[in-house]
Every structure is written in structure tokens, then in C-alpha cells.
Specification:
Aminopeptidase; eight-stranded mixed β-sheet; alpha+beta; 8 helices; Immunoglobulin-like; 405 residues; 2 domains
């Protein structure tokens, strides 16, 4: 099976640095070759599915798409089979496709899950920006099929499990964010598919006290990525609190840890068929190993401590996975106070907190165990209203700054 992958050639914007600023490292973007021997999942056949006689066309030939099989049932009804990249796997049945053709034609779509159940409310857009839920989605009794109707427009319709934020879109955001906030931006490693793993960091402190933010270890977890963006934009904002925070703390952000999985439309895994957030003990994968080595080298070279670490994810509803309390972290009690600030904001409907052991193989356990950080995983609900999602992310950034004065 022939697979065509586009690499992203991104240009780092040069920024004039004032004489009082710390010199920033400028590293040009580059890509490496795909390590095909390391790919252990079944890749999709990227293609256009053409039904010319009916005036209907589908495609999975774009980043983050997923169609495993597509069949025409009649002149207006089409069945799309959705399968995971490999098994066993946590059930996050992602789908994304384009559909176009004769304007005003009604197209009936049947999503089928041979081994799993429908999870995400289908969303639709024509521009990747303005997303709406598809109306009148009907589920079978066993939830293994989801049926809905769309009417074709003059523009191509994009339908997906969640809003699409591809690796390229994330890299573009990183470029803009780094330029606006005068951040360091550097490649710390490469994925199996040759895509860069990028770290951003602020430069206005002495680098002795560090805050770490991670995101997108799991491809479909878009709501967590959205919260991450709001969180870091608040921490680097133009408020007095943010300016004081950045004078004392270095913020380190690694926004896209699994770019291959994101662009392949994977449910959970990397190209190696591995859940990257279960690789924080052995570090067998290049993506997690790059993050580990970058953080360890930074701490050693700067003689620094990581005070707080937050890994953004998504699940069915908002949940906080915390480490068990310790009195020997770099800032004991910080997570508890941070959670209290969130709960005070939420009122009666508080985000659930689930403590777990510090010896696990997930990021927050390693960040606490090895770097002595106050660390947790923030799981943002799949259907958490996007305005409220941003309000909460902004609030917990403000709580963090207040606690670290």
C-alpha cells in the first residue's frame, strides 16, 4: 500500500531582541525521514471515493482524516466503517472526512463501528473554524451505528468527531505564539514519521524555577489542546500578574507530542501503535524520550527546579488526575490549592478529582517522581462547552499565578 505523506516546511520568524532581553536560541525547522520499520499500525489508504453518477464525493486524503471503508448503499446513502489503528486500545473512535458534490443534494451517512461504539457528537464545518454539531444524529440500540443526514453545499463539507487541529495547524499556532510572546522555539526531537517535536519557553526569568505544560499525547483529545492554548496564553498575557509571573518563572510548553497520530487520525496511539502516555517509565518511543531528555537537560544545565507540571488531555467529562500528596515536592500543597481555586470558580458542579499512585507510567507520575514537581493531568470533557472550557483554563492560569507570587 502506497502512502503519501506531506512534510511540513516551516520557517522560524526572526525577532529583534532588545538589549535587556536574554538571548534566545534560534533553530531552523527541518524534517527527517520516516522510520518505516518503526511503523506498527495499519495505515489508511488515503483517497477520494467518487460516486460520479450520484454526484457525491468523499475523501480521507487530508491530515487528521479517518475513513477505513466506504460503501454506497443506494443513490443517497453511504456507509463509512471506522476502525482503530491497532488493538487493544482505549475506545476513542475518531472519524473525519470531506464530502462534496451536487449542491442541495441530501446525503445520508451511516457510521459503522465493527468492534466499538459511537462516542463523539459529529461536528461539521466548511472552513475549519466555525464548527457546529450535526443535527438529528440517530444511534442504533447497541451504539455501533450512527446515522445522520447532511445537505451538500457549493463548499466542501468537513465532518469530524471533534474540531480538527492538525499538526500543521498546531505548528502555525506555535510560530505565531512564539513571535508574539518573544519565546524560544526549538526542535527537541522527531516523531517516527519525521515530524518535529517542538518546545517553547519563555526567557524573562533566570530559569531557576520552571513550569511545564504538555499536550496532545492522544490524537483525538482536542478539547484538552484548546484548554492548553487558553492556559498558556493567559500565563503569557499582558496583565501585571502575568508580567510578574514571567519575571520569576520560566514557562516550558510542548504542545504536540504525537503529531503522527494526530495527522493519521488515530484514536489513541503513535505510529508505533503505542499509547505515549504509558511510556513514561521505559521511554522506548522517540517522542516521549525527546521530552524526557529535553526536560532533564534543562533542569541540569540551568540548575533549576520544576514547580508545577500540567498535562492536558480529554475524556468523557472533566476530571483531574493527581498524584498522591507528598511533603517533599518543590512546592508542597500547590496542586491542592490550585484545585481549590478551580472548585471555587466552578461552584456546585465541581470537576472530579482522582488521585493515583506516583509510581505509574504516565507523564504526571514521572514529573512528580523524577522532577519533584507538583504535577497532574487535566482531562477536559469531550463536550465541555467551548466558552466554558476557555473560562476554566483562564481561571486556573490565574490561580497558578496567584499561588506562585
Amino acid at each position: 500500500m502506497k502512502v503519501n505523506y506531506s512534510f511540513f516546511y516551516l520557517t522560524l520568524i526572526s525577532i529583534v531582541i532588545s538589549s535587556c532581553a536574554i538571548k534566545r536560541q534560534v533553530v531552523p525547522f527541518k524534517t527527517t525521514q520516516i522510520d518505516r520499520d518503526a511503523i506498527k499500525i495499519e495505515l489508511q489508504q488515503k483517497q477520494v471515493f467518487a460516486f460520479k453518477d450520484q454526484g457525491v464525493f468523499f475523501s480521507n486524503d487530508f491530515p487528521s482524516a479517518r475513513i477505513n471503508q466506504l460503501e454506497k448503499e443506494n443513490d443517497s446513502t453511504y456507509s463509512i466503517v471506522i476502525k482503530s489503528e491497532n488493538r487493544p486500545i482505549n475506545p476513542s473512535p475518531w472519524f473525519a472526512f470531506k464530502v462534496w458534490g451536487t449542491p442541495h443534494k441530501n446525503v445520508y451517512i451511516n457510521l459503522k463501528y465493527p468492534e466499538d461504539k459511537h462516542r463523539y457528537e459529529p461536528k461539521i464545518t466548511t472552513n475549519y473554524v466555525d464548527w457546529k454539531n450535526v443535527a438529528n444524529v440517530k444511534l442504533s440500540a447497541d451504539k455501533k451505528q450512527a446515522n445522520f443526514k447532511v445537505q451538500l453545499l457549493t463548499d466542501t463539507l468537513i465532518i469530524a468527531a471533534q474540531e480538527i487541529i492538525s499538526a500543521a495547524q498546531s505548528y502555525q499556532w506555535m510560530d505565531k505564539f512564539a513571535a508574539e510572546k518573544s519565546l524560544n522555539k526549538q526542535i527537541i526531537g522527531y516523531s517516527i514519521g519525521g515530524k518535529p517535536i517542538i518546545a517553547l519557553n519563555t526567557t524573562k526569568s533566570d530559569g531557576k524555577k520552571i513550569i511545564v505544560v504538555l499536550s496532545r499525547q492522544h490524537p483525538p483529545e482536542v478539547s484538552g489542546y484548546m484548554a492548553m492554548v487558553e492556559f498558556v496564553e493567559t500565563l503569557t498575557g499582558n496583565t501585571e500578574e502575568a508580567r510578574n509571573f514571567l519575571k520569576n518563572y520560566e514557562l516550558v510548553i510542548i504542545p504536540m507530542i504525537n503529531p503522527d497520530g494526530v495527522d493519521e487520525g488515530n484514536w489513541r496511539h503513535s505510529f508505533a501503535g503505542v499509547d505515549l502516555n504509558r511510556d513514561w517509565t521505559d521511554f522506548k518511543q522517540p517522542e516521549t524520550r525527546a521530552v524526557k531528555e529535553y526536560l532533564l537537560n534543562m533542569v541540569k544545565q540551568q540548575n533549576a527546579k520544576v514547580y508545577f507540571a500540567l498535562d492536558f488531555h480529554s475524556t468523557y467529562s472533566d476530571v483531574l488526575y493527581t498524584n498522591e500528596d507528598r511533603n517533599d515536592t518543590n512546592k508542597p500543597g500547590l496542586v491542592n490549592n490550585w484545585v481549590k481555586g478551580l472548585h471555587d470558580f466552578e461552584g456546585s458542579k465541581k470537576t472530579e478529582v482522582k488521585p493515583s499512585g506516583n509510581g505509574g507510567n504516565v507523564s504526571k507520575a514521572w514529573l512528580g517522581r523524577v522532577l519533584n514537581a507538583e504535577a497532574l493531568t487535566y482531562e477536559v470533557g469531550d463536550n465541555t462547552p467551548r466558552p466554558y472550557l476557555k473560562q476554566k483554563a483562564k481561571k486556573v492560569a490565574e490561580v497558578l499565578m496567584a499561588e506562585l507570587k
